[in-house]
Amino acid sequence: MSLSHTDLPGSPKPNERDCQATRKILDRVADKWSLYVITTLQGGSRRFNELKREIDGISQRMLTLTLRGLERDGLVTRTVFPTIPPRVDYELTELGRTLLEPVMALVAWADKNTQAIAEAQRRFDEEPKPEQATIQGVVYQRL
Amino acid sequence: MSLSHTDLPGSPKPNERDCQATRKILDRVADKWSLYVITTLQGGSRRFNELKREIDGISQRMLTLTLRGLERDGLVTRTVFPTIPPRVDYELTELGRTLLEPVMALVAWADKNTQAIAEAQRRFDEEPKPEQATIQGVVYQRL
DNA sequence: CAGGATCCTTTCAGATACTG
DNA sequence: CAGTATCTGAAAGGATCCTG
């Protein structure tokens, strides 16, 4: 499922269409901000600025773009109330709520393994680098 | 960001440390290439170029970077065989295999809902844009 | 309040060349 | 084979200003 190269004639393409489709969905779902928006909308509908406040670090621009993408994919509904000041509510669709289950499983996994990963990182970072070598307990610096 | 708990009103930063940690993990896991590498390693250990061939569209550089990140997080092991030519095997760790379950659930979801999303996109893209308005069945172009 | 439009900087990622 | 190093164009993303 090459994205943009010339496919050689004769190259086997099992079911390239499905692969690309699945891939595109994963690209969206695997997106950092999408994930945050979805989990935040778990608690029910939110207004634009509520989302912005609850999703720490997101800019107004990225929130808009992310919401548009999710809306386009049918995962989120956008409801405009023509009041002054305007009010726009975002809510998960039925499809969006089905996505919640696998996504929350992922979040739960992350929550649970925070410690283990932090320790793995510490070990990795303390490994002797190519600039160093530890020989019989003595550290040598590469010249 | 309140991914896994509710923020009490009035408490500005409940336990930001845990949130940020979870967030970092999600950032890695939600990464496009990480997801592909993990699912590809589901079938057992792979060599570098095997991964490169099976993950279509990934560059050698991104594969290296992704593998380093996963190795650092303790999700993948890297085994070097000092042969000529060299051989390096990558394999999911125990921790990495526990990640497989939520990740595969996500992939299954994407697979299952490809059609629904494609239709939602089609509907969205056919909606009258701000440049157009449909009034009583007649389409007007904004000037 | 909820964005759209711009500008502008930073980061990402592909292509290429080189190495043990 | 399995990388590392470097360069560069493309893209992401933040900051800011403006409007219905």
TrEMBL record, chains A, B:
Residues 19-118 form the HTH hxlR-type domain. It holds the Pfam family HxlR. InterPro entries: HTH_HxlR, WH-like_DNA-bd_sf, WH_DNA-bd_sf. Keywords: DNA-binding, Transcription, Transcription regulation. One of its GO terms (molecular function) is DNA binding. Signal peptide: none annotated. This is HTH hxlR-type domain-containing protein.
